[in-house]
Design brief:
alpha+beta, five-stranded antiparallel sheet, four-stranded antiparallel sheet, 13 strands, extended, transmembrane helix, V-type_ATPase_116kDa_su_euka, transmembrane, proton-transporting ATPase activity, rotational mechanism, coiled coil
Length: about 725
Amino acid sequence: MASVFRSEEMSLMQLFLQVEAAYCCVAELGELGLVQFRDLNVNVNSFQRKFVNEVRRCESLERILRFLENEMEDNVETVKLEKYPETPLPREMIDMEVQNLEQKLEAELLEANQNQQTLKQNFLELTELKHLLKKTQDFFEVRGLFALPTDIFTAGVIKRERMIAFERLLWRACRGNIYLRYTEMDTPLEDPVTREEVKKNVFIIFYQGEQLKQKIKKICDGFRATVYPCPESATERREMLDGVNTRIEDLNTVITQTESHRQRLLHEAAANLWSWGIKVKKIKAIYYILNCCNIDVTQQCVIAEIWFPVADAGRIKRALHQGMERSGSTITPILTAVHTRMAPPTFNRTNKFTAGFQNIVDAYGVGNYREMNPAPYTIITFPFLFAVMFGDCGHGAVMLGFALWMVVNEKSLLAQKSTNEIWNTFFSGRYLILLMGIFSMYTGFIYNDCFSKSFNIFGSSWHIIPMFKNSTWNKDVLLDNTVLQLDPAVPGVYSGNPYPFGIDPIWNVASNKLTFLNSYKMKMSVVIGIVHMIFGVVLSLFNHIYFKKYINIILQFIPEMIFIVSLFGYLVFMIIFKWCHFDVHSSQSAPSILIHFINMFLFNYGDASNAPLYLHQKEVQSFLVIFALIAVPWMLLIKPFILRANHQKAQRMVRDVDQARGIHHSKGKTEETDPKTRSELEPGVPFIGQVPGRPLRPCLCTVISYFVILLGFR
């Protein structure tokens, strides 16, 4: 239970595995998800590591899987299993490469795509030729065009957007010695490469002479216009058109068969694509971890260093034993404790309920090892602070209904394994949304607000009739004033019993509704916010006690509490005191808290228009301000000098050991200044991180940085 409020205790172990069992043991540890491996090959290039070839093979398989996924697009749905597949053995990876992906699916699908593209290109050319023959026939027959015996004509197809520039260049290059006619194709075509719709025009050019023919050919090539052979006689054109139609019908049959074969290959891949992707990712992760391990000189033992929670040591050993059995090895993995001064990783154990809140906390920064974990407290504070801002029971009910639907249908929604990022964000925070909905309904009832409307469940405590009985209101007052104000000091206007729960519904029709509610919510937010900050500072006390940093209690926690309680805690006191002290009869003389708080810092107490809240207020406020000012140098200046003294003390210890070992110092420098060599000569003496003989000077940046940190009220 303690691990909920504080990060888990971690242990560093050295793991010895047989080479044959290393793969399976790492796979079992990966399925467990409780181990962090240290990279023991930091100084080794990624391309020089032991299993770099296996990682490359996995990347090749990932490329093939991406290719298959892109080919499926939205036409073919992949089959997702209810459970994730187990980690495959290395020999299964070879089978996946040779039988399923490289030799079969990828090769066949690439061949089918190439054949289909070639067929569609032929189909496009035949379709263009068919339209060209039809339009050319129209030019000669319907529109009455005729060619002289010496005329030469060229016919072709060009993209519609290039037609105007094509015509202008032909006219200028040929100096008007051509006759050009063009028309639009009735049906748009499909580009076989980009699969986009293309609109084209059919053109025919009449000219004389071989020189113009060469110019027109070059211009057509420049505009990527396709020129087709077109017979001169009408009979030959009709015969050619009949042949083109026959070839198009045959080509359609072949294209249909090719597409059906391609779809069959894609459906075959879709049945296993999702599981293949999971397996390849697991294999790649295992070899990536193995690249972080060392292999002894005999090439028979893999050495790794792992961090894991102390509470899960038994589960780690069982996972290693299962990996040994799966690999068929008879040598038991060996775990040995490693004593180190390295900072262990922070691990906060979560479940499906607390994971969303832990992610919110981690987004602001992961705490240090064994520090108090604020996530359990965030389960209450975050939804409640959201509800203070949101505060509408109608909208809260909508959020609650949506969250309940996700929680009730949790298993079926998880089984869908959606890849939509926005949906996954909402679903992973379903319990957060559930609590936000509940708290929003609660604060909505306090604000008496439901879709900007109020409830009148218990009846208002305010009454209008006594205002007339007291002669405060009469017919003339009603006629002369558009806005009337109820006076709670008049007997019977306010019953004295507050509305049982929340804001009285009469405020919904009041003209000063916003003024009253904004003042109420602002003061409530100040109270809640300051209590929240004080709670955070109190949590830091438990960290100081746990880590036995008693100097932080004296020089950090105590002045922080003095500062925040003396100023902001006193502000909360004034808000609550004013609420409790002044009633309807004395509310007109109630002083302004804001003016009092400003005068508190200015030591200005001569303002007769702002009466004191209580007796001896001047003395109390002066004492609190002076006490708060004393706390500032207390928490900013003393600790840096103590840290400096400790640092200098450690330096003197290092210097004394150096002199005892014969390492001479001269003018602030030593003959041996290499930290690595020093740690080898003196394994029992810690290296401070600064060259000996060069004292640490107090700088203004250190003091300012410390001041900024403390102002955060951690």
